[in-house]
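Entry:
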Amino acid sequence: MAIDTTFDFRSDANGKDPDWASPTLRDFHCRLWSKPLPDGRPFELSTGVRGNYLHHSSDIGDFSLSSDAVMATFLRWPERLQPIVQQFSPEENEYLLHITYTMGGMMVFPGNQIDRRWTINQARGCNRSISDRFDLTMECVRRHYHGGWSPLHDTLDRYRNFFDLFGDFDGYVRFFLLDDIIDERGLVRFFMPFDEFQSVAIPRDYPTYAEYRRLSIEFVHARNARMAQLDV
């Protein structure tokens, strides 16, 4: 059965956060990511374990995963960004929200807290050098696999057992169908000019935000196209 990559997960979340309230989203996650790991070991996810959004348990370990809508739109950010985002029509902004709540804009990360510290979802949203951006999150993941520093270094390292499942960065990218955010050199395609995490990672002007939106929508469309080809 093909994944419906046009489905907007807000539509069955009853006004709540689709990341935990949309049953269709949970089903799609379970179907897409229940498959062999890069080394061939099975990675089956279940939805019936109390207190877990998605869960895997086998001889490779116990993993509790949560969903995250990873494409930051900046539409609801503080007042200083509103003069920029309001240059787009309500229809354009609604389309941006719609596309980010389709399957190509969704990811799973470990959802369990370790030592009462931030999860990956929390850290990438609260760290100003990331500002919830998925391109920058992916650069942090790339550096994790290559032993480099990033603003999420300590957080990702706490979940090393999860990232080890995929072998290396290429294995992680291919498992989660993230090929379209990576260039031919295996490097992350940034949606805004990259300054090595030196500043707050938000758009400063209309041209930068417009290009960020274009590249974000392009990536989600491309990832949706990959997902739509699968029979899961």
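The longest helix spans residues 206-228.
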